[in-house]
Amino acid sequence: MATAYRRFLLLLPLLAVAVAASASHPAHEFCAAGGDASCGVGGGGGDGTRILIKGGTVVNAHLAEEADVYIEDGVVVAVRPNIPVGDDNVRVIDATGKYVMPGGIDPHTHLEMEFMGTVTIDDFFSGHAAALAGGTTMHIDFVIPVNGNLTAGLESYRRKAAKAAMDYGFHMAITKWDDEVAREMELMVKEHGINSFKFFMAYKGSLMVTDDLLLQGLQKCKSLGALAMVHAENGDAVAEGQQRMIDLGITGPEGHALSRPPVLEGEATARAIRLAKFVNTPVYVVHVMSIDAMEEIAKAKREGQRVIGEPVVSGLVLDDSWLWDPDFTIASKYVMSPPIREAGHGKALQAALSSGILQLVGTDHCTFNSTQKAFGSDDFRKIPNGVNGLEERMHIIWDSMVETGKISVTDYVRVTSTECAKIFNIFPRKGAILEGSDADIIIINPKRSFVMGAHTHHSRSDTNVYEGKKGKGMVEVTISRGRVVWEDGVLNIAPGSGEYIRMPPFGYVFDGIEKSDAAYRASLRAPVHRGKAAA
């Protein structure tokens, strides 16, 4: 099947219409193909389908080696030292002194999402522009059902993704439960390539699910071989905490963090883990933001339970002090849920990531501009929750984790790409530079420095939570589906050139579940056959 699928991929045409975003243009604008002369196309980004990357260190999660990489028709054809050019029509890229790595895969984004009375400012084009400029070549977005209807939600997101400029997949949120939802879940897995479902334990009155719904959802996920994901906060307690802050006259962004402390994240994480253990199904905890939640995951993993913990960039490198800034515009841009925590949590999460307690890094990219954030200027409960990160993730993890010696270059590939591909069952098509893998590749120059900010990023947001951050390790080249789409600071992308990636069920996290179920049944020593009690 894999061979046939690869042959199918080789027949796919590569779209060549280009859109450039040069440094002379505002970060949120893009030059239309065929536009004025000032819209230059960068660095030969659309110059054919054959590329040879020479002289670099090729890094996979299992190995770093000096090798060349030959790409043809969007697929990696060869990875070995000293590949001869042999043809004038091959584009040669010199990667001497640089790292050649699989493009990043972001497991957690919200593009063009209707939320809290507005819509996230980045869509499937601007979000993809930001991602590609930052070295991410695929993401998995969350489909929100329409009035609980999964099919209607999927159709809505398909329309949104028509402008996609890179590959993407979908998770599906579950916001209510009945027989129709259960039927649609099966349809999503078997016909639409969705192998994960998210349950919000927070956002009471909108997205939040109750424990009985979560339990039924976990059971259905198990039967389908789909991964259950949870936003773990105690929604009832959060609602109480929010009202407590309002009663105390605390209405600013600091009230957001104070109303949903780490203990509520830890409680919900523990509850979700225990329910998953009761069902005996894997569970994936999204945006782990606190020591409290991380320790619950660590405990469960020590006991052999299949729990995946996903920290996000903001939780790893930021602290909540910004929420107390006297400037509302500055403070409000840091509002997200669960909240960014006080200093100390981030370092603990970094240590958990480096030791394997937490397995992969997402962003929860969910951007709103300052005008949207101002909806809550008099009441923190109305501030749209979300921060940026799609463009910044790969650079920040390199600078904060690799440059500091906390993880190796191979571990960097694992936490930013390979582990995501394995968990969601698309490895080695994605998340690797191997013969037959998709040619989603980045070239990082470890000696170059970066500076982040709203004036240079490609998100449409007018703010950036990493404003002014400096560091080392620059993504100089991004190759998506065999095309150079980012080079010399110039984007060369086309709306509609991305591909929807179907993700099959029963990934490796389900290996052995049937055997453990059988062992459980064998251990019950029941039912006990007894004679009838005397009258």
From TrEMBL:
Enzyme Commission number(s): 3.5.2.2
Molecular function GO terms recorded: dihydropyrimidinase activity; metal ion binding
Amidohydrolase-related domain: residues covered: 99-485
Residues spanning the signal sequence: 1-23
A GO CC annotation given for this chain: cytosol
UniProt modified residues of type N6-carboxylysine: K198
Post-translational modification: Carbamylation allows a single lysine to coordinate two divalent metal cations.
Catalysis performed (reactions): 5,6-dihydrouracil + H2O = 3-(carbamoylamino)propanoate + H(+)
GO BP of this protein: pyrimidine nucleobase catabolic process
Cofactor(s) of this protein: Zn(2+)
Keyword set, alphabetical order: Hydrolase, Metal-binding, Signal, Zinc
Entry-linked PANTHER family: COLLAPSIN RESPONSE MEDIATOR PROTEIN, HYDRANTOINASE/DIHYDROPYRIMIDINASE FAMILY MEMBER
Family of this protein: Belongs to the metallo-dependent hydrolases superfamily. Hydantoinase/dihydropyrimidinase family.
Subunit (UniProt): Homotetramer.
Protein name from the UniProt record: dihydropyrimidinase
Species this chain originates from: Paspalum notatum var. saurae
